[in-house]
Amino acid sequence: MTARPSTPCSLTRFLIEEQRAGHLGPDLRLLVEVVARACKSISIAVGKGALGGVLGEAGSPGAASVNVQGEAQKKLDVIANDVLMEANAWGGHLAGLASEEMDHSQPITDFGVDGLPRGDYLLLFDPLDGSSNIDVNVSVGTIFSVLRCPEGVAVPADEHYLQPGTEQLVAGYCVYGPQTTLVLTVGHGTHAFTLDREIGSFILTTRNIRIPEQTAEFAVNMSNQRHWQPPMQAYINDLLAGKTGPRGKDFNMRWIASMVADVHRIMTRGGIFSYPLDAKCEAKGGKLRLMYEANPMAFLVEQAGGAASTGRGRMMEVQPTGLHQRVPVFLGSKGEVEAAVGYHHAHD
Ligand code: AHM
Ligand code: MG
After folding, report:
1. What's the confidence (pLDDT) of residue 293?
2. Which of 88, 125, 127, 282 could tie 81 with a disulfide, CB 3.0–4.6 Å?
3. Which pLDDT does position 301 carry in this prediction?
4. 268 CB under 6 A from ligand 1?
5. Cα–ligand 1 centroid distance for 259 (angstroms)
């Protein structure tokens, strides 16, 4: 018997099937569709590069625009933020949204358009992660996380977003690389969808991603080595010692400096990603942001069989204290994350 070619499964069909399976409600399904549509627009803007006049810094010459983190904003940071805001403002699924590029969260009633329907969810996002790579044509991405707006809260404020990662209903990222790929979890596995640029649809290309438990590949910015704390020094020294060292194998290293792209590699072939505390970011608590970088990635990685930790505890159990809070991050292949955490506990 000839096997029938399998019909491609679009994101829309996948989400409808997930809804039928009771994994998410209709509002949440439509919210994911809106975010995915925004990612398609961002993908087009990123793809235009110099032709679209979207490279370089935002603001006027000599007066670069700076976000709440004190970082210079790129034009594409601002464009991606606007695309996500506009796409979600009128959808009717959100009570509010918060972004790396905005000082405070914004309740839907603040968008200045009368009569906008308000939904039950809170959306957090890093509109364009890996900004330092935009101008050099290296992969960047969007990261997002969806929480429920606490009951009885009509107009959500920053404090209503401060829920641990275990409360996330949906998390995802979209990597804008040679392919545009959306990786998504609604709490029942992690799945990858590749954008078919000819028909403009995300097509399911990997169902139930599984991250190998063991790995011989690590990702870290080695230029910070001298600034690390003793547990991180000890951990990386042992990886670098190779076959004859305490870990008994040779490790390879990769660092793209776009978390989305580094995590996507780990989703594909395993590995450990780390951005530990160092003397430069210690006072801030770390480099990467908990609410819209570390937590959504932790949810995706755990749903793919991996692990995510601060080095001392499970990432998704951190009780947030600020919208733009930073944390040390270790995530990826479970066995390797546990090894890195072991070095931290050994130094406590
Ligand atoms: P961004 O959201 O402002 O782009 O910053 C986050 C990025 C991550 O994508 C990446 O892992 C890290 O910063 C790279 O940092 P560094 O330049 O210190 O290596
Ligand atoms: Mg980022």
Report:
1. 98
2. 127
3. 98
4. no
5. 6
Ligand 1 within 6 A of 101 CB?
Answer: no
pLDDT on residue 6: 74
ipTM of this predicted structure: 0.97
pLDDT, residue 240, reads 98
Residue whose Cα lies nearest atom 2 of ligand 1: it is 129
| Angstrom distance (rounded) from CA 308 to CA 295 | 9
| Measured distance CA(171)–CA(291) in Å, rounded | 11
pLDDT in the model for residue 209: 98
Cα–Cα separations (whole angstroms), residue 259 to 5, 30, 205, 304: 35, 27, 21, 17
112 is in an annotated binding site: no
CB of 286 sitting under 6 A from ligand 1: no
The parts of the chain modelled with pLDDT lower than 50 are 1-3
Could you identify the atom of ligand 1 that is nearest to the CA of residue 273?
A: 11
Backbone angles phi, psi at 56, to 5 degrees: 90, -175
CB 15 within 8 A of CB 203: no
Distance separating alpha carbons of residues 194 and 202, to the nearest angstrom: 5
Contact 73, 59 (CB under 8 A): yes
Cα–Cα dist 37/219, whole Å: 30
Q: What are phi and psi of 47, to 5 degrees?
A: -65, -25
Q: Is the CB of 129 under 6 A from ligand 1?
A: yes
CA–centroid distance, 128 to ligand 2, in Å, is 7
158 marked as part of a ligand binding site: no
Alpha-carbon span 254 to 188, nearest angstrom: 29
Q: How far apart are CA 345 and CA 147, in angstroms?
A: 31
